[in-house]
Write a structure and sequence with these properties.
Layout (H helix, E strand, L loop, with lengths): L28 H26 L3 H29 L4 H19 L1 H6 L4 H24 L4 H22 L3 H23 L8 H32 L5 H21 L11 H32 L7 H24 L8 H14 L6 H22 L1
Helix pairs in contact: 1-2, 1-3, 1-8, 1-10, 2-5, 2-7, 2-10, 3-5, 5-6, 6-7, 8-9, 8-10, 9-10, 9-11, 9-13, 10-11, 11-12, 12-13
């Protein structure tokens, strides 16, 4: 009987690399718990973004949203790819994962101050907790797996250096932080590329695609929750109008259609090399970020329909149409184009994204966007059927 068939979690196992061709490799209950805790932070970031846009602070709100969401996404990425290669599911592994979960909750507690006061202390503290816990995992892998030691130690050095830079970032003048954010983020992104050049870790294509798919589902579900909560409050306050119901209907059509497009083909077929994996994995920053932003945008449009914001109809519409267009374009680049699909897709999906942006200026942008993406799904299904 293998360790994974035992009734109780083993106290300690040797952290050897997993088999990248292991059959039936799926997400574990611990990974699902990890995702659910991370989506708490995603929900808080989306809620603060909603308030920033509704209060006509979209410019600063976008910057704060991108910065905080990067920390959430990148910490999630680090755990996900490590777990795909080295998950031993023993007590130390679980405890280290719990520390990372605690880190994201610390980060989440600082989200409101990051948006309203540009105070990033708690987000950086939470990010540091998550990253240092990941360092402990890489150190353990380096000790137990000699073949992968060079790669593991590169991860350790890269994460420690980048995290030291993020801590130093806190002590910079407020006005210089955002200009420095992009270089520091790029350094963070470069660490896996440098580390994996020593020796590729044993990540599992099916496991990785399932993990990303599950997180996409959770983020899309958070968008539904955000919109539903906003509609519920409006109805409870006696503010239900025809415009409110068009927002609700359009939002539902958008989420269902984006789900359909994302899961149209198995994603593991794209993960054929390290280069492809980096492009696909990094591109999901925009997939996750735009999906969460859609929920915030739907809540903004509920505010507009119930006259709880002073922003224009076009500004409210843009809070949905822009993230929908981003989602469409990125999914096209990551999922549709690599399949060498029917040439019409090269015009159909990007063309729909352009149409969605133009719908910003209609009287019912959310409903119109929902109908546009439904038409895209219908056309894609028809093309696939003819082939």
């Amino acid at each position: 009987m293998s360790n994974r068939d035992q009734l109780f979690t083993p106290w300690l196992q040797t952290m050897t690399a997993r088999d990248p061709d292991e059959p039936h490799r799926g997400a574990t209950p611990l990974e699902l718990l990890f995702d659910l805790c991370f989506v708490v932070a995603v929900a808080l970031v989306a809620a603060q973004f909603h308030h920033a846009v509704s209060e006509n602070h979209a410019a600063t709100g976008v910057l704060s949203y991108l910065a905080v969401f990067f920390a959430i996404w990148w910490a999630w990425m680090g755990f996900t790819w490590f777990a795909s290669a080295y998950d031993v599911d023993d007590v130390p592994y679980r405890l280290a994962t719990f520390v990372q979960i605690a880190g994201v909750l610390i980060l989440a507690s600082g989200v409101p101050r990051a948006f309203t006061q540009h105070d990033f202390v708690l987000p950086v503290v939470g990010y540091t907790v998550m990253r240092l816990s990941l360092v402990s995992q890489w150190l353990r892998a380096a000790r137990a797996h000699p073949e992968g030691r060079a790669t593991a130690m590169r991860y350790v050095v890269g994460i420690v250096v980048s995290q030291s830079a993020w801590i130093g970032w806190l002590f910079m003048p407020v006005g210089s932080r955002m200009p420095l954010f992009a270089p520091l983020a790029l350094f963070d992104l470069a660490v896996p590329i440098w580390a994996e050049s020593a020796r590729r870790t044993a990540w599992h294509p099916h496991h990785i695609s399932e993990r990303y798919g599950l997180f996409t589902l959770i983020v899309l579900g958070e968008s539904v929750l955000a919109a539903t909560t906003a509609v519920q409050h409006a109805v409870g306050a006696g503010e239900a109008t025809a415009n409110l119901y068009t927002v609700a209907a359009g939002g539902l059509l958008i989420v269902l259609s984006l789900w359909w497009l994302y899961f149209a083909k198995p994603a593991e077929r794209f993960l054929t090399s390290s280069r492809a994996a980096f492009v696909w994995g990094y591109g999901h920053y925009l997939v996750f970020g735009s999906a969460a932003a859609i929920g915030a945008g739907l809540a903004v449009n509920v505010d507009h329909a119930t006259h709880h914001t002073q922003i224009s109809g076009a500004a409210a519409g843009a809070s949905v149409t822009i993230p929908v267009a981003v989602f469409l374009l990125v999914v096209y680049l990551l999922h549709i184009r690599p399949q060498h699909a029917f040439a019409l897709h090269a015009l159909l999906v990007p063309g729909t994204a352009v149409v969605v942006l133009a719908l910003t200026f209609t009287s019912v942008p959310v409903l119109a966007t929902g109908l546009a993406v439904v038409a895209l799904v219908a056309a894609s299904v028809a093309i696939a059927h003819r082939r």
